[in-house]
């Protein structure tokens, strides 16, 4: 099929690296691996940072112009066979796909759409109504987590759903890694206000309780809250923490390979691409049993998931892996097997092909 791919929140060509951009690129690769011809339909960005009518009105005007452009293009060169929209939610509804799909009689598909009744207020309620309308129209809504599926089903009970487990392109992790330092902790996360800062704060609190153990840590990440994040770790010995800042995605595997344990609390994580990469590199994970994290980490097998907000439990899990190297080694091997065999691009492409084949 000729598939028009669109990601309203962030184009796969966006210059800033993130899990959204990475998953958009992985989905395109998976679709192409399944034999489809994928074209990026538009780079028009829809992002409502705040629920402001003026901003939304401006986006709607741009959306009409972009839809008109695609209409002219398709009238001239022929329409695609399917519209595929990635990551719709209350801050990033699809303002062009549903109308174009209806006009050109195209099957409309969403992936990783979400709906939260907590956001049904003011302008964001209007934006969520657009998401719900798109989900209802869709021939298929591909959910990455049960949490998202339940949220969508509550809002649009009669919608068509399918499940696709979060995955990554594992090609960068195929070679057997050199043995990293078992007491080297690794974190890869952006530094921005809200859940990210909260996760860094919890991590700093945990590390402050295990100063008697011989750990060191590499931190990959940067952002507007960088100073606030570093301030959380000010009470820890400076020589224990290596601040690497933002690095190219291609350099991340080497950082992961150098470590022994991946640590990140995970407040607000949809699921967390970084958890998948860490396990692919052979690092067991310590995180919280929160949000979508359980969809990508197998508690007791590829890492430990601790109760939300329980700093003591989170700390104890890190200490356990630091002091029980045999257990850490077994978890490391299972983590790597789990990702390479079950959460690879190849596995995702095969399942995605099965899902799309069922669309009338």
Automatic annotation (TrEMBL):
Q: Name one Pfam family in it.
A: Glyco_trans_1_4
Molecular functions (GO terms): glycosyltransferase activity
- Which domain of life, per UniProt? Bacteria
Q: Which UniProt keywords apply?
A: Transferase
Q: Which InterPro entries match?
A: Glycosyltransferase_grp1 (IPR050194)
Q: What SUPFAM superfamilies does the annotation carry?
A: UDP-Glycosyltransferase/glycogen phosphorylase
Task: Output the PANTHER family linked to this UniProt entry.
Answer: SULFOQUINOVOSYL TRANSFERASE SQD2
UniProt-recorded name of the protein: Glycosyltransferase family 1 protein
């Amino acid at each position: 099929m000729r598939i028009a791919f669109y990601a309203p929140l962030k184009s796969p060509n966006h210059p800033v690296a993130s899990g959204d951009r990475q998953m958009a690129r992985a989905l395109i690769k998976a679709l192409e691996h399944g034999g489809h011809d994928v074209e990026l339909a538009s780079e028009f960005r829809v992002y409502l940072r705040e629920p402001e009518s003026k901003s939304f009105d401006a986006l709607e005007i741009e959306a009409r112009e972009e839809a008109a452009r695609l209409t002219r293009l398709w009238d001239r060169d022929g329409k695609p066979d399917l519209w595929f929209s990635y990551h719709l939610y209350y801050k990033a509804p699809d303002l062009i796909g549903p109308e174009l799909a209806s006009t050109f009689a195209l099957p409309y598909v969403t992936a990783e759409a979400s709906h939260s009744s907590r956001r049904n207020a003011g302008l964001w309620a209007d934006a969520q109504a657009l998401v719900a309308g798109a989900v209802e129209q869709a021939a298929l809504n591909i959910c990455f987590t049960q949490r998202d599926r339940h949220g969508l089903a509550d809002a649009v009970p009669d919608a068509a759903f399918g499940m696709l487990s979060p995955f990554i392109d594992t090609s960068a992790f195929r070679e057997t890694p050199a043995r990293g330092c078992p007491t080297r902790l690794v974190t890869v996360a952006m530094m921005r206000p809200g859940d990210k800062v909260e996760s860094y704060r919890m991590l700093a609190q945990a590390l402050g309780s295990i100063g008697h153990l011989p750990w060191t840590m590499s931190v990959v990440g940067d952002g507007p809250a960088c100073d606030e994040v570093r301030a959380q770790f000010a009470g820890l010995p400076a020589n224990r923490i290596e601040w690497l800042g933002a690095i190219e995605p291609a350099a991340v595997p080497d950082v992961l390979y150098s470590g022994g344990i991946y640590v990140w609390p995970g407040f607000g994580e949809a699921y967390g691409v970084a958890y998948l990469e860490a396990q692919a590199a052979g690092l067991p994970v310590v995180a919280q049993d929160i949000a979508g994290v359980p969809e990508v980490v197998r508690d007791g097998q590829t890492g430990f998931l601790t109760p939300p907000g329980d700093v003591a439990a989170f700390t104890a899990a890190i200490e356990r892996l630091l002091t029980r190297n045999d257990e850490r080694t077994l978890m490391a091997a299972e983590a790597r097997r789990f990702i390479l065999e079950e959460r690879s691009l190849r596995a995702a492409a095969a399942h995605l092909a099965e899902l799309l084949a069922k669309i009338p």
